[in-house]
């Protein structure tokens, strides 16, 4: 019997540019690869350009949070990153959260509230703010 392969750390997962449609984005994180923004056929510009102002970074799909598709531009930790949540059933509805290298953050959720903690912003996406 073969031992299961442990998941790769997020920043070590290779990017997968295989085209994928919105309905086919997985609910949970992929542990062996990063789905690239270039692969998302219906990707809105806000998601495609999420990392434009933070250096040469790629944008990767992370997971679904309720009705939201969560994408990250930049590394998981130690440097500037931006998270973009795009509503799966209305790709014009989106919210961003900027995470700075020092661990501070800033973003507005669907409630209209401004958040400085990433966890609070994610809870807002679920309607629990």
What does this structure look like?
The protein is mainly β and 129 residues long. The chain has one domain (12-125). It has 2 helices and 8 strands. The chain has helices spanning 45-48, 118-125; strands at 15-16, 34-35, 59-65, 68-73, 81-87, 90-99, 105-108, 114-115. The strands form 2 sheets. Strands 3-4-5-6-7-8 form a 6-stranded antiparallel β-sheet. The termini are far apart.
- Low-pLDDT runs of 5+ residues are none
Order of helices and strands: EEHEEEEEEH
Count of structural domains: 1
**What is the general shape?**
globular
Beta-strand percentage range: 25-35%
Biggest sheet character: 6 strands, antiparallel
- The number of E-state strands comes to 8
Number of contiguous helices: 2
What structural category characterises the helix and strand content?
Answer: mainly beta
Alpha carbon gap, first and last residue = 46 Å
Secondary-structure topology with pairs:
Layout: E1 15-16, E2 34-35, H1 45-48, E3 59-65, E4 68-73, E5 81-87, E6 90-99, E7 105-108, E8 114-115, H2 118-125
From the structure above, extract its key features:
6-stranded antiparallel beta sheet, 8 strands, 129 residues, 2 helices
A few lines on this structure:
The chain is mainly beta and 129 residues long. The protein has helices at residues 45-48, 118-125, and strands spanning 15-16, 34-35, 59-65, 68-73, 81-87, 90-99, 105-108, 114-115.
